[in-house]
């Protein structure tokens, strides 16, 4: 009988190419498809390019110290295993719950993205299309585990890159690049404004949020331990470079839509793009692009969130569970989680960019704590994990009059100060005990 470890990793060892495909499948998301247009419209071309560079930078930075993580924690499988090794019991439970909460946030954003895109693509209630889509994800990720996820990632990445190459190429050849540029300059000159200080602040803040998101991502940590150790760094670096082309290509697609005049809401840009794609081949390709990006991300997130819950919350409470019982509970939990997502998408009344920055306080506050857990050789202070909660709560309550972009930085700095103070306090306490 296959062990639960096989469900987690599929007994796979990934090389550079397969590792890149798996990481790209995780990080080419519904957020990328929908937040890129928001960044472009709100902050101009500078925002669209900045979104691309920031996402790539966060993956690149994680890859920079990925080898150190592998050497420091050679026998773990998930981010929760690191918490078990480094933290005390209450700190372990707090960090485990925070990571689960952030995972649910990421899944919820993908579900909302799927609802918006399916509502634009099909002339049927999006609940119906979402049901069949989630059922597909349940079969692949919930029941199949990592082995099945890996089988479908390569196909999805193929369609994603085919779409971002052929669709812009078709339109720019048809319309002409200079005609598109002249239309943007005539109807939307603000998109070309390079001295937009708000855009630079957005890029800097999004960099903070993205780094925290990658650093706390459960599925990224799983893939970190599935890639051959000698190829870990180059795999992450190559993934960062390739990923950066996706938001830029999406921005290019949207420029094709808006160069002829005005537009309504941000999401209508995608609908206008869909209606503008005349050849049936490109229409099918665009659908496969959306389906591939959404399905691979939700598969990775459902799988990682399920494992995090079963292994790091359920198993500590019921240590007598066998591998068969853990797999069975994984099937049940993943099914219930997808059903929950299907229901809550009906109540989503916000933009994905705003939602990302709402949770961005937690992502930013997690960075100092995660860096200390990973790199500090000292005994971790019991108070360290609470720095995240303190930084987050103070920033959103006492500084409610500021914008989200500003309070995210406050959350980050407060968490950093509390983290350093907690480690200093623990060191002083240890020294006083030792001196006695």
Note the gap between the termini: 55 Å
By CATH, the topology is Sodium/glucose cotransporter
Class from helix and strand fractions: mainly alpha
The mean pLDDT is: 83
Strand content: under 5%
Oligomeric description of these chains: single chain
| Share of helical residues | over 70%
The first-level CATH class name? Mainly Alpha
Order of helical and strand elements: HHHHHHHHHHHHHHHHHHH
Q: Any low-confidence stretches, pLDDT <50, length ≥5? A: none
Under CATH, the homologous superfamily reads Sodium/glucose cotransporter
Q: Do you know the CATH architecture?
A: Up-down Bundle
Total strands: 0
Number of H/I helices: 19
Tell the overall outline: globular
What's the main sheet like?
none
Domain module tally:
1
**Overall radius of gyration:** 22 Å
Detailed description of the structure:
The protein is mainly alpha-helical and 436 residues long. 81% of the residues lie in helices and 0% in strands. It has a single domain (4-352), classed as Up-down Bundle (Sodium/glucose cotransporter). It contains 19 helices and no strands. The chain is globular. The mean pLDDT is 83.
Descriptive tags:
membrane; transport; 436 residues; 19 helices; Sodium:Solute_Symporter; Sodium/glucose cotransporter; Na/Glc_symporter_sf; mainly alpha
Structure described in brief:
The protein is mostly helical and 436 residues long. The protein is 81% helix and 0% strand.
Give the secondary structure arrangement, pairings included.
Layout: H1 4-9, H2 16-27, H3 30-64, H4 66-72, H5 79-86, H6 89-121, H7 126-143, H8 145-175, H9 177-187, H10 197-215, H11 218-224, H12 232-243, H13 245-258, H14 266-276, H15 280-317, H16 323-344, H17 352-375, H18 386-397, H19 404-435
């Amino acid at each position: 009988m296959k062990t639960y470890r096989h469900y987690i990793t599929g007994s796979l060892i990934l090389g550079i190419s397969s590792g890149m495909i798996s990481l790209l499948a995780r990080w080419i998301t519904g957020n990328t498809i929908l937040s890129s247009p928001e960044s472009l419209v709100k902050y101009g071309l500078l925002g669209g390019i900045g979104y691309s560079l920031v996402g790539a930078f966060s993956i690149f930075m994680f890859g920079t110290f990925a080898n150190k993580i592998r050497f420091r924690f050679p026998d773990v499988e998930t981010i929760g295993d690191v918490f078990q090794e480094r933290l005390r019991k209450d700190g372990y439970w707090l960090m485990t719950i925070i990571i689960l909460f952030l995972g649910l946030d990421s899944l919820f954003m993908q579900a909302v993205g799927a609802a918006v895109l399916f509502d634009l693509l099909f002339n049927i209630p999006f609940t119906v299309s979402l049901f069949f889509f989630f059922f597909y994800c349940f079969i692949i990720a919930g029941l199949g585990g990592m082995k099945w996820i890996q089988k479908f990632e390569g196909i999805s990445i193929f369609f994603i890159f085919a779409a971002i190459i052929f669709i812009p190429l078709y339109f720019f050849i048809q319309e002409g690049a200079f005609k598109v540029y002249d239309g943007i300059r005539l109807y939307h000159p603000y998109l070309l404004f390079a001295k937009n200080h708000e855009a630079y602040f957005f890029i800097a803040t999004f960099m903070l949020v993205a780094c925290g998101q990658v650093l706390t991502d459960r599925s990224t940590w799983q893939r970190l331990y599935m890639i051959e150790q000698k190829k870990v760094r180059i795999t992450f670096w190559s993934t960062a470079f390739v990923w950066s082309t996706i938001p830029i290509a999406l921005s290019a697609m949207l420029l094709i839509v808006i160069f002829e005049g005005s537009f309504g809401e941000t999401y209508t840009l995608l609908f206008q793009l869909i209606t503008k794609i005349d050849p049936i081949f490109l229409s099918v390709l665009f659908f496969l692009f959306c389906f591939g990006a959404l399905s691979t991300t939700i598969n990775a997130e459902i799988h990682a969130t399920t494992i995090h819950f079963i292994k790091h919350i359920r198993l500590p409470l019921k240590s007598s569970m066998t591998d068969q019982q853990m797999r069975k509970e994984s099937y049940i939990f993943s099914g219930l989680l997808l059903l929950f997502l299907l229901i809550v998408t009906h109540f989503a009344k916000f933009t994905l960019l705003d939602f990302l920055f709402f949770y961005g306080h937690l992502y930013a506050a997690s960075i100092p704590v995660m860096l200390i857990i990973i790199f500090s050789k000292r005994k971790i202070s019991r108070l360290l994990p609470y720095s995240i909660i303190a930084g987050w709560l103070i920033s959103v309550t006492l500084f409610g009059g500021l914008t989200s972009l500003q309070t995210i930085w406050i959350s980050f700095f407060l968490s950093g100060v509390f983290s350093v103070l907690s480690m200093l306090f623990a060191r002083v306490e240890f020294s006083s005990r030792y001196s006695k």
